Amino acid sequence: MSDYERILAARERLAGRIHRTPVLHSRSLDEAAGAEVFCKAENLQRGGAFKIRGAMNRLLQLSPAERQRGVVAFSSGNHAQAVALAARELGLRATLVMPHDAPRLKLAAVRAFGGQVLLYDRAEQSREALAADLVEREGRVLVPPFDDPEIIAGQGTAALELLEEVPDLDALVAPVGGGGLISGCALAAHAHHPKLDVYGVEPATAADVQLSLRLGRITAITDNPTIADGLRTQQPGQLTFAIMQRHLRAIVTVSDDELLAAVRLLLLRMKTLVEPSGAAGVAALLAGRLPRVRRLGVILSGGNMDPAALAAALTPA
Amino acid sequence: MSDYERILAARERLAGRIHRTPVLHSRSLDEAAGAEVFCKAENLQRGGAFKIRGAMNRLLQLSPAERQRGVVAFSSGNHAQAVALAARELGLRATLVMPHDAPRLKLAAVRAFGGQVLLYDRAEQSREALAADLVEREGRVLVPPFDDPEIIAGQGTAALELLEEVPDLDALVAPVGGGGLISGCALAAHAHHPKLDVYGVEPATAADVQLSLRLGRITAITDNPTIADGLRTQQPGQLTFAIMQRHLRAIVTVSDDELLAAVRLLLLRMKTLVEPSGAAGVAALLAGRLPRVRRLGVILSGGNMDPAALAAALTPA
Questions:
Q1: CATH of the domain at A203
Q2: Is the dihedral of CA B304, B306, B310, B312 positive or negative?
Q3: Is the domain of A132 the same as that of A204?
């Protein structure tokens, strides 16, 4: 099965289980950006982020025996929420390994979806080891956050939908954490338009993918402070790195202030709540980090933001 | 021309000039409300509110001589913004008479649209007199905020679109200021479904329409403090009162706290920014003020909220 066939199969599998999110368009944003901008609003997706696409696609392919034993995942937030939500809908047990400093809203949402939360300390514990332990002791199936062909294919359905609705894009931009979203989207986009330019955006302080691509090998950045908690991944995956090497035009970076300016514009002008990680594409656009194009597709990847963090973002320093 | 024909004509006239706003649907809201709720997202309308529908419909019918002389309007905000925006697009001069304590964002937006702002003091000056003076001295055309058949017809196109998309609603609810929106929407709704229940929502401290309907005559409430600045109108219009008498099932009221709870739910769960006035329908629903129905249409009438007010709404007292 080709990568593209896998994405088409994911789309069939997900139909009716997730939202087909709208493509938002705003004259304010077009004027600010000097381009026609088409925003795929994954902040309006079930669970508040694109992550349900990959998680649901993976869980729908578990064997009856695997479903019996349940799943485990580690995540700073949106992936955990997605796995908890997908597991609840399919009647599976789910344990989510989450950092103790994860946004409170995300912890609460995972619990509200019936997920069992296992907190760990970023500085002292390995989430991979905690998850591996559950796999070994209870036979749980690990649902990786990004480095899995079915997760990548699921995320790619976002770009598939965007390109169906707006076929004549000149470029596509998406946030980059571990690379699952951008990899799936690039595969979907290049199946339609082999020449479409695909750009990834990372926080300047967590630009492990940019560094890895420059060095030509997977390289970790362990100290990666940023308000974009969804993009703090320390290094790309094996699969996602290889796809990004082949399919990305470039990775550009943005500062936390630029992310917050994008959050404010999206909220106050476009009236849509996008979390800092999810606003990375718009931040890069407004900061002038992307080459000028006529028609740009942007993935707004999520909208789960703590009320206190949002209030702070709206209050002048 | 019947009321309904006037709405259909407005729809033709407005096509391509305003957004056909999406109908938002969220499982979170459905679960919180115990009903299927379809939100017509006029907060995503051009100018950030439904008001452009009526204003543009009115301005498109000016004679060449009237266009030459320009327009004037008085408004606490969203109507002023809509008139300024419509006037700019049609190349007319527009003066907007606005209270000096109007939300800063709304004043700034009117100016950004090229409107000339004339500030007045709510306590000491009459906005009607200030506007009348401009009509007399400069021959400007007054664009009333609600009590005009073409304004009412324009606003009604919001319900027309909602019912085209979701034809089998059991009830419809919308915020009530001067009654332009609810009147137009009730006329549109009852042309399709004569038995559909239409409810209006007012702030408990600015319930002039509820009082007027009870007393059977237009009655003013002059002291009407509420965070819902768009619903502070002191009394209904002649036309809107007559329509509301015939077409509304009831007016229900909500407190400022209930409005803010609705703003928070819409923002944090549905990821869409709705100002307190615009959230009145959802507030009434969540507060249990509406009879239980299976499928409810709600007009989210606007999304223009000052960042500082929004930050305060997100911060626990």
A1: 3.40.50.1100
A2: negative
A3: no
